[in-house]
């Protein structure tokens, strides 16, 4: 079985977690909304319809009570229903016509003791006690006090349907002598339950649609993230040459661009490191070979007693060691991070010091160095800028023919200070001009190829730039530095 690296597994787990989180983010709020909203709507509709049904039933009971003569109702005695007395029959006909007209299931009249006087639709005999009244004791108390009322609960009839009862008092000579009860079916519960089922179905459809949208969205996010993951893993394995493909999505596109910038920076640094290592190996090999050669000859001369020749060999060895030391120093100066010690620096004084440091070598080559610097104050690291300027002046002196002249000038230009170092040498060929700032690129036999890259690195660290313009007889290095405090925090390798 192929081994899956732990970091790859973690990426896959993260992508799986992303899909799961999107599903949860889409579905849980919708599910809660459907459940809470559906329940709230259902309960509200039920309460409103129940109240409306109770109001209607109590109104029918009140209308029926107006058709009941209280004194005659009290004359109905047990057995009248069996004997079918005329008073009892009149009440029954009245209740039946009202029941048929209103569509209620049952209408009955009871006295204040809760005994049945007339019952249409229920079939209880006259004089019987109604057990249903115990359920609505509080409502009947209000009715016997002269108010209309409706039962607060629904009850299930013998047919399995839900019913509700409305009550109204029967008044005779200013006093309540009984009550009319009207039972009606809660027929609205059928459509209400159907509405509830419809709402649940719509909620299920909405949840399914959202689940599909969440999955599509998760896959849409996972695909570019997988591509980014593949690019990151390639970079982690050391593949710095394969570009990171751009992504169309805004946020992921920004990540892709940043990852590509990081890859480019790593590739550039890796290339520079390889060049530096190759350059160091190449530059060190020759002096080490010379040291080995002349130390062997020195040993033979000493054994033979040729002390005069031995002194010359020692001088050659010392020169090679000094060259090795310069290679190491240049390499360390270019490679290490150097914090900027910013301080106000007078530009003319800075240029004057650099020219003075090169005066001896210029004199030895019969080259004149001219200085023309306009006054200005730079907020910079004086020692680092001096090193950069010395490299530029040294390069110009070495490129100048005997009797030549190097011109060093400085002038303010807007918010910048521009320093130019010009020589009248043969110039830099086009092919070499493109590589002049590469580490270890040099055309001189004893050059390390780090002077100009180091100067450019220091210029960039100060927020400036270093440019080369070259033609036969006129080569110019232009160093531009900002006037002010727009400096970076440290000398970092250029990209």
Account of the 3D structure:
Residues 486-495 have low confidence and may be disordered. It contains 13 helices and 15 strands. The chain has 3 domains: 15-190, 2-Layer Sandwich (Beta-Lactamase), CATH 3.30.450; 250-332, Orthogonal Bundle (Helix Hairpins), CATH 1.10.287; 338-491, Histidine kinase-like ATPase, C-terminal domain (Heat Shock Protein 90, 2-Layer Sandwich), CATH 3.30.565. α1 (6-66) runs antiparallel to α6. It is an alpha+beta fold. The chain is rod-shaped, with a radius of gyration of 53 Å. The protein is 56% helix and 18% strand.
The CATH architecture term of the largest domain is: 2-Layer Sandwich
CATH class of the largest domain: Alpha Beta
- Overall average pLDDT: 79
Structural class: alpha+beta
Cofactor: Mn(2+); Mg(2+)
Keywords: ATP-binding, Cell membrane, Hydrolase, Kinase, Magnesium, Manganese, Membrane, Nucleotide-binding, Phosphoprotein, Protein phosphatase, Stress response, Transferase, Transmembrane, Transmembrane helix, Two-component regulatory system, Virulence
EC number: 2.7.13.3
Transmembrane segments: 20-45, 199-222
Please specify the SSE layout and strand pairing.
Blueprint: H1 6-66, H2 70-75, H3 80-83, H4 86-102, E1 106-111, E2 116-120, H5 137-144, E3 149-150, E4 155-156, E5 162-172, E6 175-185, H6 189-236, H7 250-304, H8 307-335, E7 338-339, E8 343-346, H9 347-357, H10 359-364, E9 368-373, E10 377-380, H11 382-399, E11 405-413, E12 416-423, H12 430-433, H13 451-461, E13 465-471, E14 474-482, E15 490-491
Parallel strand pairs: 9-11
Antiparallel strand pairs: 1-2, 1-6, 3-5, 4-5, 5-6, 7-15, 8-10, 11-12, 12-14, 13-14
Helix pairs in contact: 1-6, 6-7, 7-8, 9-11, 11-13
